[in-house]
């Protein structure tokens, strides 16, 4: 992992553990295990560091979460699995479980940034642009799956998954199996109700 990436992953860790108030160059240096001054060398201002955090979140979302759903849907479309709505719901459930468990820190960091964006127009613009990138990929994926209104479907699925993960972080369940059993039914109901879902 290159130093810039290590810094941004350290910054996401700081956001998750200390919130926006704790996000300082010094705290990120410590979290990343780097000498003092490393973060400020790559990110001169706090605003630049925050922008970097948003970009890193999008990068990880695309390479980890979206890629998981993408692969499952492609396999189902090519006839390598059970019915498509079940595959899509299963893949989204797996992403939700990972967001609330193994990737809990990243998810908490995202929510910290989202709350800060309510009062910060520049941060809001960065988050909206990042979210739009994810939704474009989701829209293309759903179109390949035969969903006839993929733009609206991507918005609905993202909102439902986000709300469910947020609730899980606050109220539980925490166990991965219990979480999967709790997440899957509402996700599958929405997927099966999408126009064009088989």
Describe the model.
With 198 residues, the protein is mostly helical. It has two domains: 44 residues, Arc Repressor Mutant, subunit A (Orthogonal Bundle), CATH 1.10.10; 142 residues, Tetracycline Repressor, domain 2 (Orthogonal Bundle), CATH 1.10.357. Helix content is 79%, strand content 0%. It has nine helices and no strands. It is elongated, with a radius of gyration of 18 Å. The termini are far apart. The model has no long low-confidence stretch (mean pLDDT 91).
Largest sheet features: none
**Structural class per helix/strand content?**
mainly alpha
Radius of gyration, in Å, reads: 18 Å
- Total count of domains: 2
Strand content: under 5%
Average pLDDT for all residues: 91
At CATH level 2, the architecture of the largest domain is Orthogonal Bundle
CATH class bucket of the largest domain: Mainly Alpha
Order of helices and strands: HHHHHHHHH
Helix residue percentage: over 70%
Number of alpha- plus pi-helical segments: 9
Low-confidence segments: none
- What's the oligomerization state? single chain
CATH topology of the largest domain: the name is Tetracycline Repressor, domain 2
Give the N-terminus to C-terminus distance in angstroms.
Answer: 42 Å
Number of beta-strand segments:
0
Basic shape: elongated
């Amino acid at each position: 992992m290159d130093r810039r990436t290590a810094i941004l992953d350290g910054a996401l860790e700081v956001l998750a553990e200390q919130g926006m108030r704790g996000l300082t160059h010094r705290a990120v240096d410590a979290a990343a295990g780097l000498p003092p001054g490393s973060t400020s060398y790559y990110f001169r201002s706090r605003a630049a560091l925050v922008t970097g955090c948003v970009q890193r979140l999008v990068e990880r979302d695309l390479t980890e979460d979206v890629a998981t759903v993408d692969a499952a849907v492609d396999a189902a479309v090519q006839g390598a699995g059970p019915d498509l709505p079940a595959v899509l719901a299963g893949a989204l459930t797996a992403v939700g479980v990972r967001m609330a468990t193994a990737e809990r820190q990243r998810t908490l960091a995202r929510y910290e940034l989202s709350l800060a964006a309510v009062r910060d127009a520049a941060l809001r613009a960065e988050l909206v642009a990042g979210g739009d990138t994810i939704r474009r990929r989701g829209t293309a994926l759903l179109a390949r799956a035969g969903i006839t209104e993929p733009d609206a479907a991507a918005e609905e699925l993202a909102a439902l998954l986000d709300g469910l993960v947020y609730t899980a972080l606050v109220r539980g369940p925490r166990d991965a199996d219990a979480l999967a059993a709790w997440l899957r039914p509402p996700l599958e109901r929405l997927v099966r109700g999408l126009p064009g879902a088989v």
